[in-house]
Amino acid sequence: MRTFTAKTQPASVVPPRVHNRDAGPRALGRALEVLEALARRRDGATLSGLARRLGSPKSSLLYLLRPMTRLGYLARRPDGHYGLGPAAFTLAMAVLSDRELPELARPFLVDLADKSGETALIATMAADTPVAVYIDKVESRNAVRYTVPIGERRPLYCSAIGKLLLAYLPPARRQGYLKSTRLKAFAPQTLVTRAALQRALDEIRSTGLSVSVDEVAQGAAGIAAPVFDRHGQVVAGLVVGAPSQRVLADQPRLAALVVQSARELSSVMGFGAELPG
Predict the structure, then answer these.
(1) CA torsion sign, 35 to 37 to 41 to 45?
(2) Among residues 212, 228, 213, 214, which one has the least CA distance to residue 162?
(3) Contact 75/82 with Cβ under 8 angstroms?
(4) How far apart are CA 262 and CA 131, in angstroms?
(5) Residue (of 115, 132, 136, 116) closest to 124 by Cα position
(6) DSSP code string of 96-163
(7) How far apart are CA 265 and CA 270, in angstroms?
(8) Which of 115, 178, 213, 235 has CA 20 to 30 A from 201's CA?
(9) All residues at 6 or more sequence positions from 132 whose CB lies less than 8 Å from its CB, including other chains
(10) Contact partners, residue 140, CB within 8 Å, separation at least 6
(11) Nearest 5°: phi and psi at 73?
(12) Count of CB atoms within 10 A of residue 200's CB?
């Protein structure tokens, strides 16, 4: 009787798949880096430019850009540049819409007060009547300082913040205000003629800066700059308030600080255009 021995082939050995637990977080981190890089570049960036900026191989970066583009967080232009897509802007505005202006502005007020050494404030147009109203502040640490209660109102034709908001009103509303408002003197430098006020408003729109010295109260001064939203509308003004003598002695530095803070807050609000001055 013949016996046969079956020859068996050795089973192929498949190495177990190793799951890299760090791959997901790394990809997420790289996606956020892409969004941040493109948010800082209005002209967008090419694949090569992003790879150089992020220190990532183009092949692995392209693997990430494709799904981000498909989902609408990125948009690839005809010239090959990538930019932020509609989904990214929708997400950004959804985040901003849930935060009140004082909350958004608070870090900028703290920084402005720290750098200037003076009181930093933010004000908007009141909803019920054409006056400026202070909605938040960070006071100076100086013993002698400018102080005003939150909720305090200022006429539009005097004070740095009032003139600023008036200057950026739509022309028809601004002219209506000038025709209907009695210009009453509060202090020696209050502008009480429409011609002088109109010249001041034209200068504010030209320079993006409003200065008031001894207009509301003797010895008090302020410097204000506009805060724009993503539509280019002025929604508020940042202000440095201080005793008149300190403002006059340090005006260029204080003006530069308040303008820079207003620019940065405008950027957070979604405004991307170049500001006056």
Answers:
(1) negative
(2) 212
(3) yes
(4) 20
(5) 132
(6) HHTS-HHHHHHHHHHHHHHHHSSEEEEEEE-SSSSEEEEEEEE--SSSS-----TT-EEETTSSHHHH
(7) 9
(8) 115
(9) 123, 124, 125, 126, 153, 154, 155, 156, 159, 161, 162, 165, 237
(10) 113, 116, 117, 118, 119, 146, 242
(11) -80, -25
(12) 19
Question: Is the model's pTM score more than 0.85?
Answer: no
Alpha helices in the chain (DSSP H): 23-39, 47-54, 58-70, 86-97, 101-116, 160-167, 171-180, 194-207, 244-249, 251-268
| pLDDT cut 90: percent of the chain above it | 63
- Cα 39 to its chain centre, rounded Å, is 13
What tokens does 231 get?
A: 């539509």
Residue whose entry in the numeric block shows the structure tokens 């300082």 = 145
Write out the two tokens for 139: 């006071």
CA atoms within 13 A on the CB side of 21: 0
For residue range 89-124, list pLDDT tens digits in order: 777 666 555 457 888 899 999 999 999 999 999 999
Distance of CA 1 to the CA centre of its chain: 94
Amino acid at 250: D
> Quick one: tokens of 9?
């082939």
- The DSSP symbol for 239 reads E
Q: What is the DSSP letter of 215?
A: S
CA-nearest of 246, 272, 244, 230 to 160 is 244
Here the tokens at position 155 are 């006429």
